[in-house]
Amino acid sequence: MALAVFLCPPPVRGEEEGEPVVRAILVEGNRRVEVDAIKAAVGTKVGQPLDRKKVQADVRALMKLGFFSDVVVEERGEKEGVTLVFKVTERPTVQSTRIEGNDELSADDLKDTIEVKAFAVLDVTAVRKSVRKIQEKYVDKGFYLAEASYRLEDKPDNQVVVVFVVNENAKVQVKQIRFLGNAHITKDDIAPYMQTQEGGYLAFLTSGGTYKEEAFQRDLQSIQAVYLEHGYVNAKVNKPSIQLSPDKKFMYVTIQVEEGEQFAIGKVDFSGELLERKPLLQELLQSHPGDVFQRSRVGHDLFAVGDVYRDLGYAYVNVTPVTNLDLKARTLDLTFDVQPGQKVTFERIEIAGNTKTRDKVIRRELRIYEGELYGATPIKVSKQRVTALGYFETVEITTRKGSADDKIVATVEVKEKSTGTFQIGAGFSSYESFILTGQISQNNFFGWGQTISLQVQWSALRQLGQIQFVEPYFFDTKWTFAFDLYATDSYYSNFTRKARGGSMTWGYELSGLDWLWPWASHLEDIRVFGTYTNEFVRVTSAVQDLLLYNRFRSGTTSSLRLSLQWDKRDNRLFPTAGYFVSLSGEYAPPFLAPTSVFGQNVNLFSRYTVDLRWYKPIAGGLVFRTRLNAGAIFAWDQNHPVPISELYYLGGINSVRGYRLFDLAPRTTVGSAPSPDAPLRTLAIGGNKQLVLNFELEYPFLEKLGIRGVIFFDMGNAFGPGKWSDPAVSLSLYKSWGFGFRWFSPIGPLRFEWGIPLNRRRDKASGVWLDQALDFQFTIGNFF
C-alpha cells in the first residue's frame, strides 16, 4: 500500500504568503529502476510551489509503474525552500519458478499455466492467476479435489523464487451416472452424446471417468437435444446432484429428467417470398406430417431451404421455423418462413494464412469467382477441394459485407501444415529380416502444389530407389504431368527380378472439355491419364528344371497405360471420407518395342487393373476403410508368353498381410536338380489374375502424439491361366487378420502391423510351414 509521510514540519516560507517552493527532488532506495525513470513519472517539478495533493498523486503514479511495493515521501526544509525525497521499496524480481507436489502431472503438462516469468518483476496478481490455472488444469484431468497455493522464497539481491505448491489429493473418477424420470429414453441412448462418461478399467488410456464442469454443462444441453430428437419438445433437465464417496475417490452423478409428452409433426407449410420454389422445397424436406418430431431433421430442412435461395445469390436469406403446438393432439405444426432479401455478388475473394502455399494453388481449386452471384454450394465445394489438397490442417471460408449491400467479400483462411517428410527408419519382419527405409518428399514443393520425392528401401527380399515428380496443373492448365525414375530388385522364391527404368505421364481433367460439351463441367473430379513406361528387366533363375527354365526371360518392356480416375476423397494424403476409382489398361505391343531399337528380347502383353477404395468416418474418430484391387495380364501372342516376372505374386504389408512377401501365387512341383531322381520341391510360378480385398478399422489411440490404431482383415489370391478358383482355400481367397498402429510422425507416416494368417500352408514335399503364425511388418507411408 502506498504511503506518503511528511516527516518534518513545514519549512519557513520564502514569502509571507503561499506554499514553499520545491527546490530539489531526490530518490532513495532504488537499485534497478533508474532515477530518471522515477522522476519522469512524478508530476511535481523543481521550482513549483509545493502541492501536497499533487505529491499524493505522484505516489499513486509511481505505484502504478508496478516496480515498487511501497513509496514514502519525506520533506526536508531549507531556508531557500523544500526538498522532496521519494523513498522507494522495489519489488523483488523472480529468480525462477518451480512446482512442488505434482506427482500425477509433469512440469510440461503445467508449463502453459504459469504466467510468472523468470527475471521479471514479481507480480502477485499473475502469481495468483497461475495458481487458479494450475487448479483448473487438475480439474480438467479429473483431480476434482486438487488444491494449489504458492509461497515466496527470498534470495539475495532482492530476488525471490516462486514456488507453486500442489496438493493433488486423489483423482476423482465418475463412478456412476444415473438418470431419474427417463421412462422412454434409456441411459444407453443418452450416454453416447455426453462427454462425461463413467470410468472403467481402461480409463487411464482415455478420458473416461474424468469430470469437467464446462463439459458437463454442455452434456446437460446434449441431453435436452436427445429428447428433442425423439419428439419430447417439452422435456426438462433439472439441476443434477453430485455426490462424492466417503474416501473422495469416486463421484456419483444423478440427473433428473421430466420427459413430458412425445409430439408428432402436424402440418408442414411455407410462407414468405417463395419465388415459385415451393414444389422444389417440398421435395427437399425430411420432416413429414405424421412423423415423430426430430430436431436434426428440422435443422437439415432449414439449411436445405436456405441453400436453395443462397444458390440463387440470396446470401442473407432468413428461414425461420414457425411452430404451433397442439397439446391435445400432441402435434407440432411447422411453417418455414422465407425472406430472401436481395441478390449478392462476390466483390472480392481473399486468401489468408498461406505463408508458403501460393495463392494460385488455392484459387484454382475454388468454385467461387469474383463478380459472380453468391452461391452456398460453390462455397462448400470450394472448401472440400482446398481441403482435399492435403496441405492444410483447417480450411474455413467466411464472408462479410462488401462496399455495398449487394456486394460480399469471401475470405479463404487456411492453416498450413508440414507437407514435407524426411524419414530414416529401420524395422524387422519375420520374412524380410531387417528393413531399412529412407524417404525425402515434399507434397507442396516450394508452395507450387507440386510433388517431388526420393525414396530408398532395402531388405532381404526387396531393394528400391525411386525419384518421382508430379505437377497436377501443368502451366496452370487442366493437364497433369509426372515422371518417375526407378531401380528395383525383388527376390522371389525361385528367381530375382531387377528392373531399371522410368515413366512419363500426361493427364487431363475432363471438366476442361466444357467448351465442347457443357455437361463436362460436372466432371472436375475425373481425369484420364496416359503413361509411357520403358524399363529393362533382368531375371535370374534359381531353378534348374528345364520345363520352367524358358520362362525366366530378361527383356525390355515398352508400354502405354491408359487410365481413368475418379477421386472424391476428402484428403488426398490422409483420406477419411469419400472414394477413389481407378480403371486402367496397359499395353506393351510390338510397335512400341521395335527390334531395331530394343532387339529381340522384349516383353509383350496387355494388363487390366481395377482399384476401388472407400472411406467412411464413424462416430468417435473411427474410420472404416476398404479396398478392392483386381488385375489380369494376358500374352500378346503365342510367340510372346507373359514373362514370369510380370505375373502376380501377393503377400506382404501392401497386399495380404500376414503372408510372406511375393508368396501367395499358383504353385507347381519341380525337380530340385536336373537328375530324374532328384527330390521334388514346390515353387510359386505366379498367376495371370489377382483379387485383393482389404478392410480396416482405424481408431484414435494416442491422438495427441499422432498415433492411431488399426484392426484389419485381408483376403486375396492369385490365379493361374484358365483358373478362377482355388480349391485349397475357402472362397478361393487366403485370409488374414491383424492389428497395428500408424504413427503420423513429424517426419511422415509410419506403419507397424502384425498379421495373422488364417489359412496357413505347408510345403507338400517337406511338410514345413510356409507361413509364420504371426508376422510383424513395417514400412513408410500410407496403405491406401
Written description of the protein model:
The protein is mainly beta and 784 residues long. It folds into 6 domains: 22-90, Ubiquitin-like (UB roll) (Roll), CATH 3.10.20; 93-167, Ubiquitin-like (UB roll) (Roll); 173-258, Roll (Ubiquitin-like (UB roll)), CATH 3.10.20; 264-339, Ubiquitin-like (UB roll), CATH 3.10.20; 345-416, Ubiquitin-like (UB roll); 453-780, Beta Barrel (Porin), CATH 2.40.160.50. It is 14% helix and 42% strand. It has a 17-stranded mixed beta sheet that branches. Strands 7, 8, 9 and 10 form a 4-stranded mixed beta sheet that branches. It has a 3-stranded mixed beta sheet with strand order 1-3-2, with helices on one face. Strand 18 and strand 19 form a beta hairpin. 25% of the residues are buried.
